[in-house]
Amino acid sequence: MAIRGMASSAEHSQGLKGKSNVRRSQANDLDLREKKTWPKDCSEVIRDRVSGVFFIQPTDLRQIIVYCDFSTSDGWTVLQGNHKDTGITWAEFWSTHRYGFGNVQENYWPGMEYMHQIAKQKVYQVKFVIYDSMGSMKYSDYNLFGVEDESKG
What is the pLDDT along the chain (153 residues), one digit of tens a residue? Predict the structure, then answer.
């Protein structure tokens, strides 16, 4: 499952590159430290647009690590990775589902709280991608996606 912002943002910043396959553009590191701006989602990454692991910083939240899919030019923020033959059972406590688990490069769930914080920033489109046992891809796009605050049930 991945989301993509449908409205363009005036605040563009860039991804990170360095250790642990997190992307950072070295040219503007000083700018990032001075302005303290980070992409709010993968659609705002403007440099090194190669699929992989990036830091983003949703509004009013600390930086989090997500997988960005740039196989199309739009920049999708991947919200779930669940591959065949995974060791993850997904039978976790609520607190684990709330704040996430797994390895962002493989099988992971970023957490309902982080999904809510990302999704409340602007209007998003969601895309579900599923591969069958023969490796054929199927997908479905929806134009509106949101995750309510936990207090709303």
Answer: 767 765 433 333 333 223 334 444 434 444 554 556 899 999 999 888 899 999 999 998 899 999 999 987 688 898 888 777 777 777 888 888 898 888 888 888 888 999 999 999 999 988 888 888 888 888 898 888 888 888 886
Total number of domains constituting the chain: 1
Task: Give one word for 75, left, alpha or beta, with left for phi > 0 and alpha for psi -120 to 50.
Answer: left
Element (H, E) at 30: helix 29-35
* DSSP-derived secondary structure for 90-138: ----HHHHHH-EE-TTSSEE--HHHHHHHHTSS-EEEEEEEE-TT--EE
- Cβ atoms 67, 52 nearer than 8 A: yes
Give 17's strand partners: 23
The CATH number of residue 31's host domain is 3.90.215.10
> What's the domain range around 146?
2-152
Distance (Å, whole) CA 56 – CA 54: 6
In the chain, the amino acid numbered 69 is D
pTM of the predicted structure, to 2 decimals: 0.72
